[in-house]
C-alpha cells in the first residue's frame, strides 16, 4: 500500500460525494494491489528492475548489435516501445504486407484488453480486423477453417486460461490437419493463436496460468514464448509466415513493464534457435518468458556472493525446441537448472532435464534442478509462494554449484 | 461394422434389463410424444412429417425460408412503468410494503458498496472489483423470489444475489480483502464469493462453464426431490451474461437440460456489453430469449429495471420448473451495464459517455422502485438520507475491520488441491518451508495467520 492511500475518513467523505474522485484523475488501471510485492527487508526478492535489466536493450546500439537481425535492419533505426506495442507493430506490418492476414478475437476491435490491437480495425477495416462472439472454440475453429482456405488468420484468445474450450480444435484439428489430409495437401499453416500467459501479481486461479506444456505434448503445433519487445516483434512475424500452426504466448506482465529499443523495420527471428543471453562456465539456467528476468536478477546476486559464473539460455521456441544449444551449454558447464512458472510435473522442465540426462549424462556434475511452480493452483494471495522468485533461483544456483 | 455392433449391444441391454426405479411408489410416468413415433418416413398421403427428427411438421409446397428478421421481437414483460406506476392494478406487485422496503434497502446498500469498493480499488487497496450498476434489480429481485434452499450458480456480477440471501457485509469484505476469514481462503480474485450456507456455488472466472453445472445439479435435485418427497422440492438457478451465452457450454447446457427435463431456471442478464463487445457483434438473433424455443424450453423476456417484474417472472418460472417433476425455464432479463466491465476496464474507450449518462437518467432499477415507494408514501428524502448515512457507517466498519485482518495461513497454498496432500506436494511443502526458514527476510510471513507453523503442521500431518 502506498503511503498516500487516503484514510477511511476520506473514503467515508467520498461515499457522501462520489462525484468527485479522491484522486485528481481516475486513471485506467490506476493502481493495482500486487500481492506478490516483496517483503520490506528483502535483499533478493523484488530486485527485478525492468528499467535496468541487461535482458532489455536500453540503447539503439545494443539492439542493432544482434547478429540475428538482417543486415539492412541493423543499419536502420530503433524506437523505444513496450511489449504490447511491439506486438501491435508486428500485426500492423503483417496486415500491411499480406492481404491474406486477418486479426480477430474477443474485444480486439477497440484495441483488446491488453491494447495489442490498438487502431488496427480503424486502419485496416473491420473486414480484416474484427470482434468475434465470445467463444474460444468458435473463434479458433473459425481461424483453422480460414487458414485451410489460404488465409493467414491471427486469432487472439483473451487469456491463456481461457484457451481450453478451443483445446479440441487445436489438438484434434490444427495439429492434425496436414497429417490427416495426406496427399490432398491441406494444412492450416499461417494460423497463429495469440494469448497472454503467466502470472501478473493478482490474477489468481484464472488469470495466471501458463499452459504451454499442454501444447508441447502435441505434435504439429509450434509453441513460442517471447521474452521482450524485440523478440515479440520478430518471433510473431516468423510465426505468421511459417506454414505450421503456432501457439504464441505473450507473458502478460511484460506488456507494459518490458520496454526497449526495437527496430522500426520489420524482421523475423529464427523459430529453431534458443538464445544464449549470458555466457558462463559453472552452471546453465534454461528458461523462457517472464522468469528470465527473475533468473537474471538471481544470477547477479549469486555471481557476486559465490563468485560463480552462470550461463542463461532463453528457449524462446518451447516446442519444437533447440536441443543443440542447450546440450552444448550443459556439456560445457556440467550443471543445469530449468526455471518456469507452470508446475513441475510433466512441465517443460521435465522434458529438458530428461533430454540433458539422455545426451549429456557423463558431463553432469550435479542433478538437473527444476525451479517451477508447485503442484497447486495459483491462489490469489499465495502467488509469491508458488511462482519461482529470485530467492528460489538464487538458492538453486547455490545448491547446484555446491553439489 | 464396429459402430453398428456397439449400437445393437446397447439397445439389447436396454431391452432386457428391467428399468431401474428410484422409488417404486414414485415411478415417473413419462409418455412424451416423440417416444411414440415410428421411425419411418411418412406415406405419400400423410399431412404431417413423420421423420423422427421433426414431429408434427406439416408438409408444404411453398418454399418459404424462416426469416427471423421479419418477425416481431419477443415482448419484454414489465409490471410497472418507468415512473413507478403499476400497469395492471388488479395483479399489482405481489409484494408487501415491508418486503419492497427491504428490497430497496438492499439495492441501495449494494450500489453504495459498489461505489466505495470501486474507488478503493483505484486507490490500490484491493486488486479488483466489479460493480452491479444497472443490474441490482435483476440480482436482488430474482433472489428474493426463490427458496433459500434452491441451489444457485452465478457468473460474477451477481453480488445482489448474495446480499439478498444474507451474505453479510463482513463476509463480502473478508472475501474482497482476502483475509483469513474469507470463505475462499484467499485463493480467489475479489468478487468471487461462495457460500454453502446460502447454497451458492463459488464463482469461477471462466465464462459459461457454470451453465452445464446448473443443469447437472438440477438433475441431481430432480432425483433428490423424487427420493425425498417429504422435503420441499428444490431447483437450480443459473445466472450468466449475454456474452457467455455465445460459449459452447451455454448451448450444451440448455440442450441437455431440455432432454433431461431438469428443474432449472437459466437467468440471462443481457446488459448490452461483453466487456467492449456490443450485442450487435455478439449475436444476430432476437437476444438470448429466442434461443430458448430452439431447445424446446419455456422462455420469457423481462424488463430488468422493474424489480416487481423480475420477482413475478422468477416466481412463475420456479412454479413451471417444478411442474411434472421438472423442466428448464429460460428468462432473459434486459438491462444496461451502467458501470465499466470491471476495475480493469475503461468503457469510454468503446462507448460514448453520453450513452451511459442517457441510460442513467432514463431508467434504473433503484430509482424506479423509489418512485413506486414514494407514490405509496412509504419513502421520502429524509428516510433516504437516514438510510444512506446508516449504510455508510456499516459498510465502512466492515471495510476497516476486513482490511486490517491477517492473510490466510500459508498451508492453504497446498491443501484442497486433492482431498489429501500427495507425496509430490509433501516434497514441495518441505522445499518451500526450507526456503522460508533459510531466507526469512525475503518473505512477509507474519502477514499470514500462524506464520510458518501452518506449513510445519501440514508437513507433519502428511507424514502421519
UniProtKB/TrEMBL annotation, chain A:
PANTHER family in the cross-refs: 2-OXOISOVALERATE DEHYDROGENASE SUBUNIT BETA, MITOCHONDRIAL, 2-OXOISOVALERATE DEHYDROGENASE SUBUNIT BETA-RELATED
Molecular function as annotated in GO: branched-chain 2-oxo acid dehydrogenase activity
GO biological process: branched-chain amino acid catabolic process; generation of precursor metabolites and energy; response to nutrient
Record's protein name: 3-methyl-2-oxobutanoate dehydrogenase (2-methylpropanoyl-transferring)
Lineage: Eukaryota, Fungi, Dikarya, Ascomycota, Pezizomycotina
Catalytic activity: N(6)-[(R)-lipoyl]-L-lysyl-[protein] + 3-methyl-2-oxobutanoate + H(+) = N(6)-[(R)-S(8)-2-methylpropanoyldihydrolipoyl]-L-lysyl-[protein] + CO2
Every Transketolase-like pyrimidine-binding domain range: 81-257
Organism name: Zopfia rhizophila CBS 207.26
Coiled coil: none
Record's keyword terms, sorted: Oxidoreductase
Cofactor: thiamine diphosphate
Cross-referenced SUPFAM superfamilies: Thiamin diphosphate-binding fold (THDP-binding), TK C-terminal domain-like
Enzyme class: oxidoreductase
Alphabetized CDD domains for the sequence: TPP_PYR_E1-PDHc-beta_like (cd07036)
EC number(s) from the headed UniProt entry: 1.2.4.4
Pfam families: Transket_pyr, Transketolase_C
TrEMBL record, chain B:
EC number(s) recorded for this UniProt protein: 1.2.4.4
Domain named Dehydrogenase E1 component: residues: 104-410
Main localization category: mitochondrion
Domain of life of the organism encoding this protein: Eukaryota
Cofactor(s) listed: thiamine diphosphate
Keyword Transcription appears in the UniProt entry: no
One term under GO cellular component: mitochondrial matrix
Catalytic activity entry: N(6)-[(R)-lipoyl]-L-lysyl-[protein] + 3-methyl-2-oxobutanoate + H(+) = N(6)-[(R)-S(8)-2-methylpropanoyldihydrolipoyl]-L-lysyl-[protein] + CO2
Family: Belongs to the BCKDHA family.
Protein name: 2-oxoisovalerate dehydrogenase subunit alpha
Annotated source species: Zopfia rhizophila CBS 207.26
Amino acid at each position: 500500500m502506498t503511503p498516500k492511500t487516503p484514510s477511511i475518513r476520506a473514503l467515508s467523505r467520498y461515499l457522501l460525494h462520489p462525484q468527485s474522485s479522491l484522486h485528481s484523475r481516475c486513471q485506467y488501471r490506476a493502481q493495482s494491489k500486487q500481492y506478490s510485492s516483496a517483503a520490506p527487508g528483502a535483499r533478493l526478492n523484488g530486485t527485478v528492475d525492468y528499467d535496468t535489466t541487461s535482458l532489455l536493450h536500453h540503447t539503439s546500439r545494443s539492439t542493432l548489435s544482434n547478429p540475428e537481425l538482417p543486415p539492412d535492419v541493423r543499419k536502420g533505426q530503433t524506437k523505444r516501445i513496450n511489449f504490447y506495442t511491439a506486438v501491435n507493430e508486428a500485426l500492423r506490418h503483417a496486415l500491411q504486407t499480406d492481404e491474406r492476414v486477418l486479426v480477430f478475437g474477443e474485444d480486439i476491435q477497440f484495441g483488446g484488453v491488453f491494447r495489442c490491437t490498438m487502431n488496427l480495425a480503424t486502419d485496416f477495416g473491420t473486414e480484416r480486423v474484427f470482434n468475434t462472439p465470445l467463444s474460444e472454440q468458435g473463434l479458433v475453429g473459425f481461424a483453422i477453417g480460414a487458414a485451410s482456405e489460404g488465409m493467414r488468420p491471427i486469432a487472439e484468445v483473451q487469456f491463456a486460461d481461457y484457451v481450453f474450450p478451443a483445446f479440441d480444435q487445436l489438438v484434434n484439428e490444427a495439429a492434425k490437419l496436414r497429417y490427416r489430409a495426406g496427399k490432398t495437401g491441406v494444412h492450416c499453416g499461417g494460423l497463429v493463436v495469440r494469448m497472454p500467459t503467466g502470472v501478473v501479481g493478482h490474477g489468481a486461479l484464472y488469470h495466471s496460468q501458463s499452459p504451454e506444456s499442454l501444447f508441447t505434448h502435441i505434435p504439429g503445433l509450434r509453441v513460442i514464448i517471447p521474452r521482450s519487445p524485440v523478440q515479440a516483434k520478430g518471433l510473431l512475424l516468423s510465426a505468421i509466415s511459417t506454414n505450421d500452426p503456432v501457439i504464441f504466448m505473450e507473458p502478460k506482465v511484460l506488456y507494459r513493464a518490458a520496454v526497449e529499443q526495437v527496430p522500426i523495420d520489420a524482421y523475423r527471428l529464427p523459430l529453431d534457435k534458443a538464445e544464449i543471453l549470458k555466457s558462463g562456465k559453472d552452471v546453465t539456467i534454461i528458461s523462457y518468458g517472464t522468469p528470465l528476468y527473475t533468473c537474471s536478477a538471481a544470477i547477479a546476486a549469486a555471481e557476486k556472493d559465490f563468485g560463480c559464473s552462470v550461463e542463461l539460455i532463453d528457449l524462446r521456441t518451447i516446442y519444437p525446441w533447440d536441443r543443440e544449444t542447450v546440450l552444448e551449454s550443459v556439456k560445457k558447464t556440467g550443471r543445469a537448472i530449468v526455471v518456469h512458472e507452470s508446475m513441475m510435473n510433466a512441465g517443460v522442465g521435465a522434458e529438458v532435464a530428461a533430454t540433458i540426462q539422455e545426451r549429456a549424462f557423463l558431463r553432469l556434475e550435479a542433478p538437473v534442478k527444476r525451479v517451477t511452480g508447485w503442484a497447486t493452483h495459483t491462489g490469489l494471495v499465495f502467488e509469491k509462494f508458488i511462482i519461482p522468485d529470485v530467492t528460489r533461483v538464487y538458492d538453486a544456483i547455490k545448491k547446484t554449484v555446491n553439489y | 461394422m464396429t459402430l453398428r455392433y456397439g449400437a445393437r449391444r446397447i439397445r439389447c441391454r436396454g431391452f432386457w434389463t428391467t428399468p431401474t426405479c428410484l422409488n417404486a411408489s414414485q415411478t415417473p410416468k413419462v409418455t412424451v410424444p416423440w417416444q411414440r413415433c415410428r421411425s419411418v418416413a411418412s406415406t405419400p398421403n400423410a399431412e404431417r412429417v413423420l421423420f423422427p427428427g421433426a414431429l408434427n411438421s406439416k408438409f408444404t409446397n411453398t418454399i418459404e425460408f424462416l426469416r427471423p428478421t421479419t418477425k416481431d421481437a419477443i415482448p419484454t414483460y414489465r409490471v410497472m412503468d418507468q415512473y413507478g406506476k403499476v400497469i395492471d392494478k388488479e395483479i399489482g406487485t405481489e409484494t408487501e410494503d415491508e418486503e419492497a422496503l427491504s428490497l430497496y434497502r438492499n439495492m441501495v446498500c449494494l450500489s453504495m458498496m459498489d461505489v466505495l469498493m470501486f474507488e478503493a480499488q483505484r486507490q490500490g487497496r484491493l486488486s479488483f472489483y466489479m460493480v452491479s450498476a444497472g443490474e441490482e434489480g435483476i440480482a436482488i429481485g430474482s433472489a428474493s423470489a426463490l427458496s433459500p434452499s434452491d441451489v444457485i450458480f452465478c457468473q460474477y456480477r451477481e453480488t445482489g444475489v448474495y446480499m439478498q440471501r444474507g451474505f453479510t457485509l463482513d463476509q463480502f469484505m473478508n472475501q474482497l480483502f482476502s483475509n483469513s476469514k474469507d470463505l475462499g481462503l484467499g485463493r480467489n480474485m475479489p468478487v468471487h464469493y461462495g457460500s454453502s450456507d446460502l447454497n451458492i456455488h463459488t464463482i469461477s472466472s471462466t465464462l459459461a462453464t457454470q451453465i452445464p453445472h446448473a443443469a447437472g445439479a438440477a438433475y441431481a435435485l430432480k432425483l433428490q426431490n423424487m427420493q425425498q418427497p417429504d422435503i420441499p422440492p428444490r431447483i437450480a438457478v443459473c445466472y450468466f451474461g449475454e456474452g457467455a451465452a455465445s460459449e459452447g457450454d451455454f448451448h450444451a447446457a440448455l440442450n441437455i437440460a431440455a432432454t433431461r427435463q431438469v428443474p432449472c431456471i437459466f437467468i440471462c442478464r443481457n446488459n448490452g456489453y461483453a466487456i467492449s463487445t456490443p450485442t450487435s457483434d455478439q449475436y444476430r438473433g432476437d437476444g438470448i430469449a429466442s434461443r430458448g424455443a430452439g431447445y424446446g424450453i419455456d422462455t420469457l423476456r423481462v424488463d430488468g429495471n422493474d424489480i416487481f417484474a423480475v420477482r413475478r417472472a422468477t416466481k412463475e418460472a420456479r412454479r413451471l420448473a417444478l411442474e411434472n417433476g421438472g423442466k428448464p425455464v429460460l428468462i432473459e432479463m434486459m438491462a444496461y451495464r451502467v458501470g465499466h466491465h470491471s476495475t480493469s476496464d475503461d468503457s469510454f474507450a468503446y462507448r460514448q459517455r453520453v450513452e451511459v449518462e442517457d441510460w442513467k437518467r432514463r431508467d434504473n432499477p433503484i430509482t424506479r422502485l423509489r418512485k413506486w415507494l414514494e407514490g405509496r408514501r412509504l419513502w421520502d428524502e429524509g428516510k433516504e438520507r437516514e438510510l444512506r448515512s446508516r449504510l455508510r457507517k456499516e459498510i465502512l466498519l466492515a471495510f476497516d475491520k476486513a482490511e486490517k485482518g491477517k492473510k490466510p495461513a500459508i498451508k492453504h497454498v497446498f491443501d484442497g488441491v486433492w482431498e489429501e496432500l500427495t507425496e509430490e506436494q509433501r516434497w514441495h511443502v518441505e522445499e518451500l518451508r526450507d526456503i522460508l526458514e533459510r531466507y526469512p527476510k525475503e518473505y512477509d510471513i507474519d502477514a499470514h495467520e500462524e506464520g510458518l507453523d501452518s506449513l510445519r503442521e501440514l508437513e507433519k500431518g502428511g507424514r502421519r
